[in-house]
Design a protein that fits this description.
Helix content: 25-40%
Number of strands: 10
Strand content: 5-15%
CATH superfamily: Divalent-metal-dependent TIM barrel enzymes
Radius of gyration: 18 Å
Strand order of the largest sheet: 1-3-5-6-7-8-9-10
Distance between the termini: 14 Å
Structural class: alpha/beta
CATH class: Alpha Beta
Order of helices and strands: EEHEEHEHEHEHEHHEHEH
Largest sheet: 8 strands, parallel, barrel
Number of helices: 9
Amino acid sequence: MIEKIFISTGSFGKIDVDELLRTTLNNGLTNIELSSGAFYHEKMKKDLLQAKNSETHRFLVHNYFPVPEKPFVLNLASENKDILSLSRKHCQAAMQLTAELGVEFYSVHAGFCFHAQPEDLGKNQRKLERFPKAIGYNIFLESLYMLSKIGKEYGLKIAVENNVVTMDNRNSDNNNENDLYLCATGEDLQSLMADLDDQSIKLLIDLGHLSVTANSMGFDPIGFIEMVAADVIAFHISDNDGLNDRNLPVTETSWFWPSLKQFSNNAYFILEAYNLTTETIKQQCQLIGAGIYE
C-alpha cells in the first residue's frame, strides 16, 4: 500500500478491534483509520499499542473512536451542557490515544445545531429541537480552542470534517438555506479557519459529504476543494448518487480524481466505503493509488 492511503474501520463492517487487527494483518491492509465501525472491548487499547509498537500497523484516529460503552451523539457545538461535556471529554480521550499511537492528527466532525439521539442519525433532522446557528458556531469555536490547546501539549493537529446537507435537511422556508449544520460549504470552512487563526487546525474533506451538499445547495464541488486546499490534511473517499451519503465504492470515473492529484505529496487518503470484502478493499486501494498517484 502507498504510505498515505488508509482504510476506515467501516470498510470492514461492524468488527471487534482484535478481529480487525488479525484480518488486516493477514491481508496486508495495515494502514487503518480507527472509526465508529469498531466495537469497544477491554483489551482494545493494549492491542492497538502492541500493534503500533510491533510496527505491524499504522493508525489514524477519527471522531467517535474509541466507541463509548454508552452511545451518545457527539456534537462539539451542542447547546446541551451534558452532551457538550461528553463530547469534549470523548475527544480529549481520543486525542490521548492518538498521541500514544504516534499519529499526526485527530479528526472530528463539525458541529450541528439540533439535539439528536443516536437513532436520529442519517434521517430527516428538521423535526428535531434546534438552536440558533450563531450560538452553535460560537460553542464549536470554544471546543476547537480547547482541543487545539490540548493538541499542542501532545504535539497533535486537529482536523475538522465538513458536514453533509441533504435536500431534505435544507430550510425550505428560507431559500433552501442550511440552518442546521456547521462547516458545510467552502465559505463556511474559510470563515472557520480565519476565525480560529491556528496553524494546528486543519481540514478533513469528506468527498461523499461534499458531493451531496454541493448537489443540494447548488455549488461546484471542485470549486469547494480549490477554496479550502491550503488547509486540507486528509480526505475521506467514497462515492454516492449525490442525494445521500451512501459510502459506496469508488470507480475509475469517480468525479474527484483530477482534483486530488494536487494533494499527492501532502495529504492522507482514507477509503470510507462501507461493508466491503477484503478483496474489494484491496481493489479500492489500488483505484485510489491509480487515481491520485498515476
